[in-house]
Amino acid sequence: MRPHPAIRDGGLAGGADPSPRGWPSHPVASAGGPRGRGADAAHSPARRAPAGPGPGGGTPGAWHRGCGAHRPGRRAASSASGGRSLSGVRIRPRPQCRRRGAGAADCPAAPGGGDRVIRRILVPLDLGRLSEAKLPIAEEHGRAFDAELILLHVLAPGETTGESVTAAETRARTYLDALAARLRSEGIAAQTLLRSGRAADVIVAQIEEQHADLVILGSTVRQGLSRLLLSSVAEDVVSRATVPLLLVRPAGRAEGEPAVRSFDDDAVRAGPVAPRILGLRTVELARIVGSVGRAPQLDEQFRSRTHDPHEEARFNSIMRALQEGKVLPAVELYKLGYGYYVLDGNHRVAAAKALGQPEIDAMVTEFVPLKDMQAQRVFAERRIFESVTGLTRAGATRQGTYPRLEALVRAFASERGMSDLREAAQDWEGEIFRPVSKAIRARRLTQKFPGERTADVLVRVADWRDQQGKHLSWEQAVAGYAAASQQP
Predict the structure, then answer these.
(1) At a CB cut-off of 8 Å and minimum separation 6, what does 259 contact?
(2) pTM (predicted TM-score)
(3) pLDDT at residue 282, rounded to an integer
(4) Which of 194, 244, 361, 434 could form a disulfide with 330 if both were Cys (CB 3.0 to 4.6 A apart)?
(5) Backbone angles phi, psi at 195, to 5 degrees
(6) Number of domains the chain contains
């Protein structure tokens, strides 16, 4: 397999990265946004924040917006050391938590609506570069408050189903995984969250469901004006949110989502990564969403945008070969987070997609974030699980999931009286893992656990089933666990 030219000494150098903490560079003006009507944001005067430290304020060049001129008592958050939020609630960092090394759960907020402690910060993101302007601000707040960041992307209705993975879902998960890996490598707790529906409704619902204490939103700028304006989504959220909001104004023009993701760009987002050869395996075509070195030249179906005659002839010859049932060499893929990127075999991937094939054989190299210790440990557990069982399709992100899956396979083998564990694993995958995974997706149970995959939730269902005495079928266990998880 040909190494990627950017790989150096076991890691991957993503190129020049002038921005702080390695985020893609964007000129940013940050603002504490209003919690009143969106019209207040458009008409209240902007003011330059004083210089000084602290997230959300005091940053040279930052813009603060408040509704003080229109709504007494509502002010922009000024600094990490005791500024006022837009709801009039004092926000303070948690130095006592950092001194003790305690987690967010060890530092409860003051009761009765007094000082507000920021434990969880919701950061809605689209898949464009402009949206990433919020990330340095979110990172500052995460550090100052020792808070967990929840990176949320909202898919449009119909872009995800309960039956199988879609390309839109994979693109979003891949993007969020890269951002979360970077944050975790910097010592900031970060989880990803994928939802579908009307964006404003989903964001407002997730404020409550995720117990968010702060929301960081984006704003826009009208040409020729120096004041912040709200998009329709942001204005809707501002008018309905029950927690403080922070508005971030990016510089530049909004860009659409790329048709094919670039491995180089996403590797920069993820931070230092190291290659791990996984070898030959079968990959869902819907999870191949990127290219190594050719992303700008390809459309969403991995066809050449230029319609070059040579490219078209190559594509047509591969189409004929597949239709005639000929065996072609496996494609070569890089894996980063949830998604796969084509290193060699764009024409074969395009032809397979055109023919409606669900899967393709591939030689896979996975890139694991070097500084994300959780990702490193999960990867090590997965390699052990795969070497023992021979199963390669169980994807998990939670530490401890793979050892638990192995225990389930061993229990299945014992119940069936099978001495060959790999043979038992194949039967377990077909009879238990795939049907239960499908039921979990149909009920959208992964949405209850930010950042987790179907295999992680399957383990949760298995543990709950064990607590009930194992008299339940797996179908009953999924239904019962879904009902139990709805309870407060």
Answers:
(1) 298, 299, 300
(2) 0.73
(3) 94
(4) 361
(5) -135, 170
(6) 2
